[in-house]
Amino acid sequence: MNAINWPYEQKKFFSVNRFEELVYNKNKFIRMEKKKKKILKIFDVFLVFIASLFFCYFVFVAFSAITCNVVLNNKNRMEIRLEAELEGIKAKNKILMEDISNMIDKDYVKNVAYLRLSMFMPSEENIIYYDKTNVGYVRQYDTIR
After folding, report:
1. How far apart are CA 54 and CA 64, in angstroms?
2. Can you give the pLDDT at residue 1?
3. Distances from the Cα of 76 to the Cαs of 15, 38, 51, 108, 119, in angstroms?
4. Separation between Cα atoms, residue 1 and residue 7, nearest integer Å
5. How far apart are CA 100 and CA 104, in angstroms?
6. Most CB atoms within 10 A, among 68, 82, 113, 122?
7. How far apart are the C-alpha atoms of 142 and 128, rounded to whole Å?
8. Is the pTM of this model over 0.70?
9. SS3 track for the chain
10. How many Å apart are CA 72 and CA 64, to the nearest integer?
């Protein structure tokens, strides 16, 4: 009877080993799946980190662009205001230069002297002539008539 049951027992023996092997392979597969999940979690965290870095970079670039745009707009407004102020100063300067040139005009000076200041031309009696001497220091730009 022992000889008859031997192949059955042998099969049973191999099937237990096969079962243990299957259990071992299943555990190995489960461990590998856990490692994969762990790696995927780390990779997901890494991807989220990279995405957040790109988002922060995009926000920084957008903020910088907006800031530069605001600064440029302020500078353009200031430039326009200063150009308008410069035009006003140039117009005022032109008026003042015309006034100066009018004051140098002898006819204008005579009219102001006669009309505003009630001045008149001196007569021959009021004019005193003198001889020029080389004594003393006098700076003279033009000859006296």
Report:
1. 15
2. 44
3. 89, 56, 37, 45, 54
4. 11
5. 6
6. 113
7. 18
8. no
9. CHHHHHHHHHHHHHHHHHHHHHHHHHHHHHHHHHHHHHHHHHHHHHHHHHHHHHHHHHHHHHHHHHHHHHHHHHHHHHHHHHHHHHHHHHHHHHHHHHHHHHHHCHHHHHHHHHHHCCCCCCCHHHCCCCCCCCCCCCCCCCCCC
10. 12
Q: Looking at this protein, which amino acid is placed at residue 126?
A: N
At 19, list the tokens: 């079962």
Cα gap 137→140, rounded to integer Å: 10
For residue 52, what are its two tokens? 């957040």
Q: What angle do CA 7, 9, 13 make, to 5 degrees?
A: 115
